[in-house]
Amino acid sequence: MESKAVVLYADRLPMKGIVQPGPHELYQNPRIAVETRPLGDLDPDDIRVEMIYAGICGTDVHLVETNPNTGYIRCSAPADIPETGRVLGHEGVGKVIATGSHVHNVKSGALVAFESIIVCHHCNECRSGRFNQCRNARLLGLERDGLFGTMVDVPALLAHDIAQYVLTDQDLKGMACLEPAGVAFVACQNGQVSEGDVVVVFGAGPIGLFSAMMARDIFGASQVHTVEPIPFRRKLAEKWCNQTYDVEDFLNNCPKSVDVIIEASGRLDNVTRIFRRVNANGRIVLLARSGGSLEIRDVDHMISNAVTLTGSRGHLGGAFETILSLCRNGRLSLHEFVTEVVRGPEGLADILGSPERILQENCKVLASFQDLLNH
User: 280 and 302 in contact (C-beta within 8 Å)?
Assistant: First the structure.
């Protein structure tokens, strides 16, 4: 059995002077290929899935982009790119065609969407229920081959049966966005967004927009302000925000008091520049990875006002179940940020070769495998 897949190659050359280099200090010269790869025997804990839709994440874009100042890839999220290449992709939906001998939670023929964090279940964090911080976590599509293929093998524990939530193709597209929606949901939880809050979201990519949508419609924020330099994405954000801004416009006209900042752009200097606008008991949530540093100049303001600064990683701990319930009851529409659908591995490879097309003209880009698999 074979799969046609999108595979990333890169040269491993650790940056000098870095003791524990991240991927953005480790890999150079990224290259994308579309390859037909054989699938071996199915692992007892895995399921084999015919992909229907797969989504491009900003992390995927950062894996194929290089920093012009360093020559290294932009991705600072945990990643392992072996000499044999890494199949990308960690968002999507598909149909199960086979199950491993140890698999009992998923049946052949099921429609499934996927989590992307493979946890160990035995470290202290897992045993404490903090799965997003698993000490031995491996990331689908970054540290294990992912979903950008016509047929893929995935740990069964990542799969959620979505058949009851899917009546139309639009629903399928929405379910392909379940993972980034889960990340945004957890970010709102970590920011303790609640009724009456004034929320500022930096970045109107998919996770930023999901954060804005949920802050207002699910968590009850009284005002949501989104900051985004790209006009297309700023226009898309208007439906879920009280106000949208270009960066400099916001810095000159931002609310006088902000309860929650959700940083989903990777431009950490924006947080520094409005830090003194954060209200007493305000919360700052850092989502986007850039490999950059955050400078806090107003430590006295932070101390006096009990401002909380937290990182937010992942979507585990019940986010998927809550989001699916919200979708079933008409509270969320996950498909609304899908702006383009490309065709299969070739379409994925083509658009990943033109990152500006993703960033300037789109929000969530999906690849469709349906016509390739006769669904």
Answer: no
d(CA 324, CA 309): 29
Residue 183 near residue 213, CB atoms below 8 Å: no
User: pLDDT by residue (tens digit) across 138-183?
Assistant: 999 999 999 999 999 999 999 999 999 999 999 999 999 999 999 9
User: What angle do the packed helices 319-328 and 178-190 form, to 10 degrees?
Assistant: 110
Residue 170 lies inside a defined structural domain of this protein: yes
The pLDDT value given to residue 35: 97
CATH number at residue 297: 3.40.50.720
For the stretch 276-293, pLDDT in tens is 999 999 999 999 998 889
Q: What are the C-alpha distances in Å from 341 to residues 48, 52, 234, 361?
A: 23, 12, 20, 13
Per-residue model confidence (pLDDT) at position 5 = 98
**Secondary structure (3-state) at 35:** strand
pTM of the model: 0.95
Q: State yes or no: pLDDT of 372 exceeds 80.
A: no
What contacts 358, CB < 8 A, 6 or more positions away? 56, 61, 351, 352, 365
d(C-alpha 123, C-alpha 136), whole Å: 7
Burial code (b: 16+ CB inside 10 Å, e: under 16) for 12-28 equals eeeeeeeeebbbbbbbb
Tell which phi-psi region holds residue 349, choosing left (phi > 0), alpha (psi between -120 and 50) or beta: alpha
Q: Output the DSSP codes for 103-162.
A: --S--TT-EEEE--EE--S-SHHHHTT-GGG-TT-EEBTTTB--S-BSEEEEEGGGEEE-
Give domain status of residue 187, yes or no: no
What is d(CA 240, CA 201) in angstroms, rounded to the nearest whole number? Answer: 11
CATH of the domain at 354: 3.90.180.10
Are 205 and 171 members of one domain? no
Mean pLDDT along residues 287-308:
94
Report whether 316 contacts 131 (CB < 8 A): yes
- The domain in which residue 240 lies consists of 192-311
How many structural domains is the chain composed of?
2
Token digits for 186?
Answer: 């957890």
